[in-house]
Amino acid sequence: MGDIRGGEPAREGRRRRQDDHLEQWVNGTRELIPLTGERLTIGLSPTNDVPLPFDRTVSRVHAVIERVASQWCVRDLSSRNGTFVNGERIWRECPLRAGDEIRVGTVRFVARVDDGGVPDDATVGAESGPALTRREREVLVALCGPMFSGDVFREPATIRQIASELVVSEAAVKQHVSRLYDKFGIPEQEGRRAQLANEAIRRGAVNTAEILKGPSRDT
């Protein structure tokens, strides 16, 4: 008898998970996407679970929705143009609540999930940044600056822009950026600067207030 009672919550949990889904909205047309596995990738590439080949503002592998400790979360995969939840760009894992709106490029998704009553300030998978020198922090602040300039789709600063901002040589900036790639574990691949900027913010190495203020120009 105990086994039967013990099995009911598990079966009920499976029924709830089968009901979880996303509404995908493109040009006013809705498509339902069931959340039946443990993760679902979204991106430009046709190999994604949800491919968006028609939207060139979407990165090849842009974002993932995955189950973390029984809660559905969305995570940006260091995409060039970012992932937004309820209008806010996300920098780390973001737990989803019923009715949350996710934007990837021009596509809108609405989460129809059992959120288990997760509070607004829930935190999942927080990760701290590496130790930085003063100059490395200034380079990161300059790198991230254009991303907060008011244009949603702005890219991080170039080496030349950072050098001009800090009044140092481009060679010096390249050395600092190379060390930062190593410290944050950013592999050699397309979009490394954007990935570094996203990781620096996601892991709290720099914060929004610092970026909006801008880097110090002390030598």
Key words describing this protein structure:
alpha+beta; 6-stranded antiparallel beta sheet; 5-stranded mixed beta sheet; 219 residues; disordered N terminus
Could you give a short description of this structure?
The chain is α+β, with helices and mostly antiparallel strands. Helix content is 32%, strand content 22%.
Please tally the β strands and state the result. Answer: 11
Q: What is the subunit arrangement here?
A: single chain
Helix content: 25-40%
Main beta sheet, described? 6 strands, antiparallel
How would you sum up the global shape? elongated
Radius of gyration: 20 Å
Number of helices: 6
Distance between the termini: 75 Å
**Relative strand content:** 15-25%
Mean pLDDT: 83
Low-confidence stretches: 1-16, 122-126
Strand-pairing-aware structural class: alpha+beta
Task: Give a verbal description of the structure.
32% of the residues lie in helices and 22% in strands. The protein contains six helices and eleven strands. The chain has a six-stranded antiparallel β-sheet, with no helix packed on it. It is elongated. Residues 1-16 and 122-126 have low confidence and may be disordered.
